[in-house]
């Protein structure tokens, strides 16, 4: 239901009418607004406007990698993928950008664009090999950003770990006596004091 406004003071011959959005019960979508005005001489006019109201940001789903996933030599290759959907007026032509950063290292790709063919479409990158130069072991953060035609932007992030090396125990001391690092399974003798 569209509210009727109070008659404005038109002594100057023209006026601006502002109707706050909270006066309407709108969900995102297409609407038609008709405005009718009559002057003091009895002449009237009616104009109709087509309005697209977008109240939601794009929805992003990251399918791969899984958040907090641990990857190793067995799954060193990764295709980053997901979907993005906008229930409002639609997405920009190149709506998805990917940023992959390493906790202790460079931005691997700071703003890679991934093109969608249609709203609600899946997207993916070429397969990345984390054993290749430039990647390597570490904690990675993937941030995916999408923007709709009104400029509403949303982001979602997943963190994953790539780890291939076994942990090592080094620098062990008992009673302030160093223990050799290569004595796994051997008996170690330690003197008192």
Can you offer a commentary on this structure?
The protein is mainly β and 193 residues long. Helices cover 0% and strands 45% of the residues. It is built from no helices and 14 strands. The strands form 5 sheets. The chain has a 5-stranded mixed β-sheet with strand order 4-12-11-7-8, with no helix packed on it. The chain has a 3-stranded antiparallel β-sheet with strand order 3-6-9, with no helix packed on it. It has a two-stranded antiparallel sheet with strand order 1-2. Strand 13 and strand 14 (177-178) form a beta hairpin. The termini are far apart. The relative contact order is 0.16.
Number of helices: 0
Number of strands: 14
Poorly predicted ranges (pLDDT <50, ≥5 residues)?
A: none
Share of residues in strands = 35-45%
What is the helix/strand order?
Answer: EEEEEEEEEEEEEE
* Class inferred from helices and paired strands: mainly beta
Estimate percent helicity. Answer: under 10%
Lateral arrangement of strands in the main beta sheet:
4-12-11-7-8
- Describe the biggest sheet? 5 strands, mixed
List the helices and strands and how they pair.
Layout lengths: L28 E10 L5 E10 L5 E6 L4 E3 L5 E2 L2 E5 L5 E12 L4 E8 L7 E3 L3 E2 L8 E11 L4 E10 L10 E2 L2 E2 L15
Parallel strand pairs: 4-12
Antiparallel strand pairs: 1-2, 3-6, 5-10, 6-9, 7-8, 7-11, 11-12, 13-14
């Amino acid at each position: 239901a569209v509210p009727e406004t109070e008659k404005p003071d038109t002594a100057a011959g023209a006026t601006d009418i502002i109707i706050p959005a909270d006066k309407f019960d709108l969900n995102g979508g297409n609407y038609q607004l008709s405005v009718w005005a009559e002057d003091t001489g009895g002449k009237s006019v009616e104009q109709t406007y087509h309005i697209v109201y977008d109240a939601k940001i794009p929805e992003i789903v990251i399918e791969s990698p899984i958040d907090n996933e641990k990857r190793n030599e067995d799954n060193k290759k990764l295709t980053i993928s997901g979907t993005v959907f906008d229930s409002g007026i639609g997405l920009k032509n190149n709506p998805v950008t990917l940023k992959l950063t390493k906790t202790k290292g460079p931005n691997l790709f700071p703003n890679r664009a991934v093109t969608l063919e249609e709203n609600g479409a899946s997207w993916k990158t070429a397969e990345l090999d984390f054993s290749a130069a430039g990647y390597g072991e570490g904690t990675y953060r993937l941030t995916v950003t999408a923007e709709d035609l009104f400029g509403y932007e949303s982001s979602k992030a997943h963190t994953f770990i790539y780890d291939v090396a076994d942990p090592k125990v080094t620098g062990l001391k008992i009673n302030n006596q160093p223990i050799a690092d290569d004595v796994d399974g051997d008996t170690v003798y330690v003197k008192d004091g």
